[in-house]
Amino acid sequence: MSAKMRLQRHGKKGQPFYHIVIADARAPRDGRFIEKIGTYNPVAQPAQININFDKALDWLNKGAQPTDTVRSILSQKGVLLKKHLLVGVKKGAMTAEQAEVKFQNWMKEKEAKAAEEVKAKAEQKRAAQKERLEAEAKVNEARIAELAKRRAEAAAAEAAENAEAATEEAPAAEETTEAEA
Fold first, then answer.
1. Low-confidence residues of the chain: pLDDT under 70
2. Which of 8, 46, 143, 160 could share a disulfide with 19, CB 3.0–4.6 Å?
3. Is residue 7 within 8 Å of residue 69, measured between CB atoms?
4. CA gap 17, 12 in Å, rounded
5. Distance in angstroms (rounded) separating the CA atoms of residues 56 and 22
6. Beta strands of 42-106 (E only): which ranges?
7. In b/e form, how buried is each residue of 142-170, taking b as 16+ CB within 10 angstroms?
8. What is the pLDDT of residue 165?
9. What contacts 24+ positions apart, CB below 8 Å, involve 63-70?
10. Do residues 58 and 82 make contact, with C-beta atoms less than 8 angstroms apart?
């Protein structure tokens, strides 16, 4: 019986959520499995990966073959690197302490890089929001200026109309006073 590390799909249509499982190679994708070792949520930004590191390493050492997607997930989490370093220890290329130091250094670099990417995305998001607000402020200023211009024109037209009406009323009033006299 050959074991495979694969994804088992869950979640509703358009919102996938996967369990990372160890299954018999002959079993269907969402069918029977031997053990669940983690989860993978590709919908979240960034994708959320929860994996039992020790179980995954143990199954790799037992000979379980990961699918391409699971292989990339294990690579991201460092399981494949740890396996590689342990093989080097078995062959005598390095000591277990040296392998652990290399692995810890890699993990620190990986975490620093991930934190930097998150910070850069947040900064980019803030800059885009600031740019949108500035553009909106310009549009609002243009609208306010246009509205003020229309109001000024309307007030000038109304004042001209009132002045014209006043000049028309004054001669009519003079005519009525002359007729009375």
1. 1, 170-181
2. 8
3. yes
4. 8
5. 9
6. 48-51, 65-66
7. eeeeeeeeeeeeeeeeeeeeeeeeeeeee
8. 80
9. 63/2, 63/3, 64/3, 64/4, 64/5, 64/22, 65/2, 65/3, 65/4, 65/5, 65/25, 66/4, 66/5, 66/6, 67/4, 67/5, 67/6, 67/7, 69/7, 70/5, 70/6, 70/7, 70/20
10. no
CA–CA distances in Å: residue 38 to residues 32, 58, 70: 16, 14, 11
State the residue for tokens 């299954």: 23
Q: Does the pTM of the predicted model rise above 0.85? A: no
Residues 22 and 64: beta-carbon distance below 8 Å = yes
Nearest to 88 by CA among 78, 99, 76, 80: 99
Q: Is the peptide bond before 42 cis (omega within 30 degrees of 0)?
A: no
Q: Which token pair is 65?
A: 């073959």
> Token pair for residue 108?
């620190």
For residue 28 the two structure tokens come to 């269907």
124-145 pLDDT, tens digit per residue, is 999 999 999 999 999 999 999 9
Which stretches of 25-121 are assigned E, i.e. beta strand? Answer: 35-41, 48-51, 65-66
And the tokens for 34? Answer: 């031997």
